Request: fold
Amino acid sequence: MRRGSVSVGGVMVCGEVRRGRIHSVTMELAGKGRELADKKDTQVSCLLFFNELLDDPADLFYYGVNRVLAVRHESLKYFNQEIAAKLLAHIVGIYLPEIVLAPATTAGRTYLPAAAAMLHTGLTADCTGLDIDEESGLLLQTRPAIGGNVMATIKTPDYVPQMSTVRPKTFRIPPRMERGGEIVYPEVPTDIFESRIEVMSVEYSDDGDSNIQDKDVIISGGKGLKRAENFAIVRRLAELLDGGVGASRPTVEAKWIGYPHQVGLSGKIVSPKFYLAAGISGAVQHLAGMQTAQKIVAINKDPDAPIFRVADIALCGDAADILPRLTKRITEE
Ligand code: FAD
Reply:
């Protein structure tokens, strides 16, 4: 939609419901949406679409949402990109938000571009920073560019809504605050729920340790581990600390470990309380995925390794030697 052709307003957050639960990324975006809306003195709405909902949508008010737009339909049992895109485009057409924020999850990455195309607007994917330009009131969308070497800040003055996807864990969930709001069940024409795609079944990977974004502790391995077998030491320490296993991209490319474990620009962004990087050099693309961790410990045999610049504790030495010693020490305590 071209700016000027319609009257617009508000921030709309696209929530994500997985197996009936409101995913935490919804609260992260609600908090950021609230911040942006406060700067523009406007409201935050949150679109939730689902077949069943086990959580109370009113909980989103605590995170700054003024209005939950809840759409329930049996066709939403499994994520369907075509239906999700049509639904979002329809809801945007009714509520005319100025800004639309969505998670850069597998689902968000597929239906947001399609919805943006339907709305004849643009989309800035994988934003790591969002703000409001004081002068123009436009959304400032910051994202890594040129292999993560440059942070580009993008303004889209001509098109509305301004749409962004944001990776989970980029923004922190704000503290809960007592606030009110309304839950609206918008009417949606039935043809929105028709699709050429029929999802027959979905198999969920319950490989708990690959779900690293929810972990408080992550132990990650890099090429400095030398061999795939050495990931066993990383796993052992992670298990001991009830943590997840992370990895650098070259170890994933070498098939030492699966892609769900990759941390970084082209992997997952994590923000745990404790991140241990063993045999990881600390390339900008890796740092982009973990530098917001609260405590970073790095093991590297090169005293000049860039990872030491972001580390709170630097252990200079052989990872294959230090990791088992750490594990032994923790087991004994
Ligand atoms: P290396 O660079 O090979 O470093 C190995 C480190 O181990 C060195 O610092 C070395 O001193 C140390 N070492 C060696 N032996 C030992 C030992 N015995 N004990 C302790 N330390 C030892 N990378 C990611 O990780 N995630 C991404 O998402 C990602 N996305 C990318 C996207 C793009 C567009 C591009 C261009 C690159 C991306 N990369 C990503 C790759 C990134 O640039 C680096 O190549 C990568 O992070 C390096 O991985 P590494 O540190 O494991 O390996």
Notes: Residues 24-40 form the longest helix (17 residues). Residues 147, 222-224, 248-251, 262-267, 279-281, 283, 285-286, 289, 299-302, 305, 318-320 surround flavin-adenine dinucleotide (CB under 6 Å).
